[in-house]
Amino acid sequence: MTSPIRTERHDKVLVIISDNPPVNALGQAVRAGLTDGIAQALSDDSVEAVVIRCDGRTFFAGADITEFGKAPKGPSLPDALDKLEASDKPVVAAIHGTALGGGCEVALACHYRVAVPSAKMGLPEVKLGLIPGAAGTQRLPRLVGAEAALPLVAIGNPISAKKAKEIGLLDAIVGEDSLAADAIAFAKSKIGQPVPRTSEGTANQDGVKNPDIFDEFRAKNGRKMRGFDAPNAAIEAVKAAGELSYAEGVKKERELFGKLMTGTQSKAMRHYFFAERAANKIDDIPADTPLIDMKKVGVIGAGTMGGGIAMNFLSAGIPVTILEMKQEALDRGTGVMRKNYENTAKRGRMTAEQVEQAMGLLTPTLEYDDLADCDLVIEAVYESMDVKKDVFGKLDEVVKDGAILASNTSYLNIDEIAATTKRPGYVLGLHFFSPANVMKLLEVVRGEKTRDDVLATAMKLSKKIGKVAAVSGVCPGFIGNRMLSQRQAQANQLILEGAKYWDVDDVLLDFGFPMGPFQMGDLAGIDIGWHRDPSKVTTIREALCAVGRFGQKADKGFYDYDEARQRTPSDEVKQIIADFAAKEGNEQRDISKDEIRERLLYPMVNEGAKILDEGMAQRASDIDVVWINGYGWPLYTGGPMFWADTIGLHTVVAGLEKHGLPVSDYLRKKAEAGESFN
Ligand code: 3H9
């Protein structure tokens, strides 16, 4: 097999080039090639400096994740990088694209780093449940200081070249189109000078002088890190970089890395990494299916949902025409969109110019005819089949042939909606989650007649607007809400049988969800969909509405809320539930948290199995993607189906049986065969 690494001579400079598509991952052959390249430079007296760069779309994007969990093959990345850094001839990293993880560690082991303005650098290992394992936690703080290193290592978001230069991670920013030549010139300028080795840097002493920075960082980012093991290990490693010698620090990093690598969290998060990428692929549609050009998008409805949907496209530079029925609603909707953008700008995540650019792409209208030349129209109107049918009928008449018509319905039958048009092949569901400009998930609902190019275009578009998409077949509630309704039914039943409603919420919080169903009800408003007749009480929610307990907005719902929005279980609600249960003939008993957890989560897995069996999801990992991105299922458990695999499907079946709950044939068969979903 030919090596992915080649070398070129430019006078006294040896250029080591990696060409390992798609992302120049640092697999065994790349590591071996890098080591050989450095050896070649050192053994040749006519070479006086070295440049390392990559062909293709990016500098090394990290270790090859597909090698994790397999028997390691030398040279290891830490060894390769130690050899590189030991060179007494200057080595320059020439960076474009994304220098991530092990790729960033390659750059750190080089004596100098130059990059193009569009490059990004980062250590995202923490997002795979890991910390950098090739001395990144020890070299980075020695170069840029512990305080600047902490967010990079413990949160894992990449930074721009500009920011990298500011903190000292880059030595120079070079021309966008002249990286190779500029890096060689930079290397030549360093010939004959003593080489600066990052492992010998002293910037890490900032954390020794002010050890409070570690606790402050923990306090500031506590919510983001809740439940995850890797961020704490990352903080520990960065702290160690100031307290220990380099050799001891590296040893500490290896210990922490090894522990994380063999733990369940990293396994789950690596599963998710590949799951997210797999979800964007549709098994029976060829990758080279021609796509429909997307120059302009229409959105019907300028409420919270429609406005949020529109913002996704505006932010991606795609013009949007937004339609409302009344001028007042249109003005209100576009006003909210502008305000959202301005708030983002206030937080420093957008410039004022970008706000104007995005809003400049928006055309508000009251006329259906203005949607005629859109390539895609998404309706986000009231959730009623009759209303949707009416909207699709009108759209079918005015919007040009070959344009896609999409519904944002979270529940209704897409095939029935499609049948009201003369172009059912061009109809599909695009189910956004609220707030639609923030939430990552997009459920793409494939109708019976949806054309291949329509679906392929939707998947491509979802990536362009920064969404994580998963395909669902047509069934009530699709993948996400269909499984949610199982959990909700159990939550309601549990409190009738005597479970404390705050225990139900706490079980889900402890599991890693951001909140439980009753807290969620209070936040969203318990009166959503309430008929406003206090004399007709058929559910606990209606009983709460009847006494004005509408949720957080009324300072009372399931919980009482104080000024700081802290929740306290309410005696009034306890009584309402007890009375309601008695009326329904439910005898109340103490219910353990274990029972609550099993009854909330196992029926979801069972429903997931049915969804798979019916072919409503392409693969179990798509279900994981839906639940992690749309419903706050904790990433570090890998999603409901991966989690079920981890605890064993026989455990799920036994639990369902113990609680007298239904077990689908598919789940039972898999459990009996000792199989897993993923
Ligand atoms: C690490 O470095 C540990 C070290 O500290 C310690 C070592 C001792 N490996 O995302 P895309 C595949 S941990 C293997 O769709 P984009 C990916 O699966 C690593 N494969 O492209 C996909 O395959 P397919 C730290 C990888 O342009 C294809 O490449 N680094 C890897 O949207 C295209 O990927 C990271 O965590 C990999 N490292 O985004 C960075 N990376 O076509 C992970 C990608 O079959 N990577 N693939 O579906 C990324 O964040 C994005 O891929 C990147 C490009 C931003 C680079």
Attribute tags:
globular; isomerase activity; alpha/beta; N-(1-d-carboxylethyl)-l-norvaline Dehydrogenase, domain 2; (3S)-3-hydroxyacyl-CoA dehydrogenase (NAD+) activity; binds (S)-3-Hydroxyhexanoyl-CoA; 2-enoyl-CoA Hydratase, Chain A, domain 1; 678 residues; enoyl-CoA hydratase activity; eight-stranded mixed sheet
General description of the model:
The chain has 678 residues and is of the alpha/beta class. It folds into three domains: 5-262, 2-enoyl-CoA Hydratase, Chain A, domain 1; 297-477, NAD(P)-binding Rossmann-like Domain (Rossmann fold, 3-Layer(aba) Sandwich); 500-584, Orthogonal Bundle (N-(1-d-carboxylethyl)-l-norvaline Dehydrogenase, domain 2), CATH 1.10.1040. 47% of the residues lie in helices and 12% in strands. The strands form four sheets. Strands 12-11-10-13-14-15-16-17 form an eight-stranded mixed β-sheet, with helices on both faces. Helix 19 packs antiparallel against helix 24 (593-613). The longest helix has 21 residues, at 593-613. It starts with a strand and ends in a 6-residue tail after the last helix. The model has no long low-confidence stretch (mean pLDDT 97). Residues 22-23, 25, 58, 61-66, 77, 98, 100-102, 105, 124-125, 128, 132-134, 136, 277 line the site of (S)-3-Hydroxyhexanoyl-CoA.
